[in-house]
Design goal:
Layout lengths: L19 E6 L5 E6 L15 H7 L18 E6 L9 H7 L9 E3 L11 E4 L5 H6 L2
Parallel strand pairs: 1-5
Antiparallel strand pairs: 1-2, 3-4, 3-5
């Protein structure tokens, strides 16, 4: 599932023009570095083009996204540990969805809506718990 959500405010993004790296910190604390090639954006149909979710999916990283990356849930919640200033501003719709995410921080974003501009490398933490797991009682 993927596509766009016609009921939300469109995010303003600045796509990267030069390669950069995204380091993903998995829930088990292992790390995976993905080198982003701006010429290959979008990597697929899920999330905003060039978003953390788009990059993760293109690299085979399992980042949950129950709504298909259209800003209609909070399961792709990530924490931008370094480089948040290089990402687009979140919309009110994104922040409304983020309120549903467990373990929310000031650096929390939805992976489907967070688009780095590539001016520096960034570090993304995938939380160990998401909305689905919290509701299932794990």
């Amino acid at each position: 599932m993927g596509g766009t959500n016609p009921y939300i405010e469109k995010a303003e993004v600045e796509l990267p023009i030069k390669p950069y790296a995204v380091t993903f910190i998995h829930p088990d604390k292992t790390q995976q570095v993905v080198h982003v090639n701006p010429d290959k954006i979008p990597y697929g149909p899920t999330g905003l083009p060039g978003s953390i979710l788009d990059i993760a999916m293109g690299a085979g990283i399992d980042l949950e996204h129950v709504c298909g990356g259209v800003c209609a849930c909070s399961t792709c919640h990530v924490v931008v540990k370094q480089g948040l200033e290089t990402c687009n501003e979140g919309t009110d719709d994104e922040f409304d969805q983020l309120e549903e995410a467990p373990a929310l921080t000031l650096q929390s974003r939805l992976g489907c809506q967070c688009v780095p501009n590539g001016t520096k490398d960034i570090v993304i933490e995938i939380p160990a718990i998401n909305k689905n797991l919290a509701k299932e009682g794990h």
